Amino acid sequence: MSWKSLLENTEQHRVSGHYQVIKFTPNLIAQETFNIGIVFHDNEDNRHVRMLKNAKAFECLYGKEGATQVQNMLNYAKDIAVKLGDTVIASPHLSYSAPLFTQGLTIDQILSSLYGQYINLICDHMETQSTQRQSINTDSLRKKLFKDLRKANPEGFKDILREEPFIIGGDSKVEINMPIWKHGDIFKNNFFGTLVSADFIPEAYLGYNLDTLGAMNLQTACEISGGKSRAGFFIYCPTPDNSDISEENYTNIIKHINKTSNNVKYMADRTNIPLKFVQSDDLKKLYEDILNFTYA
User: Fold this and answer.
1) What percentage of the chain's residues is helix, strand, coil (to nearest 5)?
2) pLDDT tens digits, one per residue of 200-216
3) How many Å apart are CA 48 and CA 77, to the nearest integer?
4) Which phi and psi angles does 96 have, rounded to 5°?
5) Considering the entire predicted model, what is its pTM?
6) Are 123 and 46 in contact (CB under 8 A)?
7) Which secondary-structure segment (H or E) carries 96?
8) pLDDT tens string 113-171
């Protein structure tokens, strides 16, 4: 067999078509979007779908209960992609990117290549990482806070903490995920605060916790409350001295924290709200600072 015939045979088996990325937006207000799957529509009008293997990576963002809900959405998204196609979007939390042309030697090669390019929440990577270190996520931090505050102030617990996001506003409803919020009347002298973890190396998780759960909600609260409240922004961040985070990763985390805190401080200054900003690698001290903040 000649080289020419080999090339001709290869060309005959080349697959081409269009692909789309399946996107998942858990919080429609925050608009944080994650790539969870690939749909490839080949030149013979067949559809091929490859989804994120499981929702384990989402435990860092939402805890185990939240990851279970994400897993249900993954199953649902695959079912929709396979049976209904990309012309039907049955949930506001799901969307498709614009179709783009691609080609390769096989369907599997195309899907594998696109998956590696677009799907960054690789569960195998997360499992490997978890064997190296146990990060503390925001959900775990807040559960500990709720427990401590309930012990310290059982009577006032319900007036201080908001374990679930809450809705405020008139015709224009706003959802706020703010675990500390003390008010009788929202426009009187009150306080509010948030606690997040920066114990993450991957940028996606770091950004979600610091910016989406933390800064975005705090800035919204500042705008709503004006200068009639005081705010607290509490961040847990381990150091290379008390964890296995490298100096390089720690430097990147600190840069992200500084950028986030600057945005929050700017909003607090603009709305005349006193801001208590605390960043600590000591959980005990961090909880004491929060308790003191709620009693000040």
Assistant:
1) 50, 20, 30
2) 877 767 887 888 888 88
3) 13
4) -120, 145
5) 0.57
6) no
7) strand 94-96
8) 788 778 876 444 444 444 445 678 888 888 887 887 778 777 767 777 877 777 766 56
